[in-house]
Structures are given as C-alpha cells and as structure tokens.
Amino acid sequence: MHTFGGGGPAQQTPAETTAGPPEGPGPPEGGTTGSATGQKEPFTWPLGDHLTEDQKTQLRELLDEHIDIFAFDMNGMGQIRNETFRIPVTDDTPIFRRQYRLAEAEKEILKEQVEERLAAGFIRPSMSQWASPVTMPPKKDEFGNWTAKRPCGDYRALNKISVTDHYQLPTPEEIF
C-alpha cells in the first residue's frame, strides 16, 4: 500500500458579482486586491446570464455572507494536517519513473509552482522510492482560450497496479 500526505488546492471560480472583503491576500487578476492598509476592494463573481436579477441578488447575498470560505490563492487554502491516505496496490514493488524532458520555459514554470506549493505547505520534499513524472499541459481560461501551463503528475503506472475501488456512486435520485 502506498501512502501519500497533504492536501490539494480547490477550484476557483471566475467573476461577475461583487462581494465583501475576503480574508487573506485576495483573488487573482480582476478580483479583490489588497492595499497597504490590508483593506480589500470588492471582488467580482461570475454569474450566469441564465439567472434572473432576483436570483443574482440572492446569490450575491449568499456569496457575501460566506466570503470567508473561499480561497483566492494557495495561502488562503485550508489544509488537513497529520493525515495520510493510502492507495491499495496489487504489487508493493515501488514504481519509479524518470522525469520527462521539459523545455527550459516549462522547467521555470514548474520550479515556480513547486516553490509556491512548498511555501503554502501543500507539498514537502520527499526521498521516496516511488516517483511519477510531471507533464506540463496548457490550461484553458473561462473563455476556452489556452493560457499558462500547469504541472500534472503522470500516474498511469501507479493506476495500473492500484486496487479498483468498487464503491458505486449514488444517483441524484438516491441523494435527493
């Protein structure tokens, strides 16, 4: 069984409704920015055009009320400390895959993102016998345009020896 620790960042949503001041450093481009005094400017949340004005107002109020539960950068993310999770495997022989070649620009992006995750406490240095390579696919913005690259682990070799979890997800009818 292979053991991992730490947590991962949650997804962040883009913007169109204004909310009150969030805790922490504030969201990325187009959102709240911090001032020298620590005051925050309003953040704009994205709201679908399919919503009525009344629904948008209700949603804005809900977001304003719970602004403290949103993270606008890695340092604003919560973490589960001193917990590990296990991946049951069919073969305990460690899987070690060499890193793929990366362009110099990709290496720089990877270095920056690793340093950011180290500083935020999401990852830690490891001397494990288990290793998977990193790929650097581009990601899309909310408009479908290709933007910056992001690091992704290639866990195909680990997936091949992972014991399948046969837990069946409930249907919406079973939940509601």
Keywords:
two-stranded antiparallel sheet, single chain, 2 domains, extended, HIV Type 1 Reverse Transcriptase, Chain A, domain 1, alpha+beta, 4 helices, 14% strand
Pairing-aware structural class of the strands and helices?
alpha+beta
Count of β-strands: 8
Sheet-strand content, in percent, reads 5-15%
Low-confidence stretches: 1-39
Q: What is the CATH H-level superfamily of the largest domain?
A: HIV Type 1 Reverse Transcriptase, subunit A, domain 1
Q: Give the helix tally.
A: 4
Choose one word for the global shape. extended
The total domain count is: 2
The side-by-side strand order for the widest beta sheet comes to: 1-4
Question: How would you classify the quaternary structure?
Answer: single chain
Mean pLDDT over the residues = 77
Order of helices and strands: EEEHEHEEEEHH
- According to CATH, the fold-level topology of the largest domain is HIV Type 1 Reverse Transcriptase, Chain A, domain 1
- Which CATH class of the largest domain is shown? Alpha Beta
**Alpha-carbon distance between the termini?**
35 Å
Put the structure in a nutshell.
It contains 4 helices and 8 strands. It has helices spanning 53-65, 104-120, 156-161, 172-175, and strands spanning 2-5, 17-19, 43-45, 84-87, 134-135, 138-140, 146-149, 152-153. The strands form 4 sheets. It has a two-stranded antiparallel sheet.
